[in-house]
Amino acid sequence: MGSAKKSSSTERQARIAEMRRAEEARERRNRILTITASVVVVGALVAGGVVLVRSQSDDSGDTAAGSETSGSFVTGEDGVRTWKGTLSRNHVTKDVTYPAEPPVGGDHNQVWMNCNGDVYTKPLNNVNAVHSLEHGAVWVTYTDKAPKADVEALAAKVKKTPYTLMSPNDGQKDPIMLTAWGHQRTVTGAGDANVDKFFEKFVQGEQTPEPGAACTNGLSQ
Q1: For residues 137 and 105, is the Cβ–Cβ distance under 8 A?
Q2: Could you tell me if 77 and 52 lie in one domain?
Q3: Among the ranges 9-13, 36-40, 90-94, which has the highest mean pLDDT value?
Q4: Residues 154, 156, 159, CA angle at the centre, nearest 5°?
């Protein structure tokens, strides 16, 4: 039994290390792409910027059309609530009313919240956090009823786990909740075994709509 746990822990640490290396590589590539894109944009503006403006207008029309989020939660024997239905994935510039709090998916802002083990002390805009879920992040949220010791322990766990983020959310029904794209559960505290199980299954899990997408170079507080 001890050997199996040690093996599982070693594999998990190796997986996290590999994810961190991949994230660092993506961040380097993104910096290069950002510089290149800036040069292209400046060139386009000098030329008149007509194509850019037109493209933005077209994108706005496309994302507004066909928006659909429908369905409901089904709770499994493991206590995880899974969204059965459709979760739309359009980029929008307006606020979105989600059927769950915290939301488990749906239309969202084109800019994600940084989720490379980021711990936020203020509530997040759902439209940005949902984009992080689309990238395969697990979002830890808590209310003012969550014990301080649990909040601190969870924050420590998030800080060392790529593709996670954490923030307060007094709009949710339970003191501590874990959310991934299309999945959610309540946990009793930082020592609840279901915390590790949820992380292991859903951090960059099979539910991820955009596996490998960046969790850096987004918004931060």
Answers
A1: no
A2: no
A3: 90-94
A4: 110
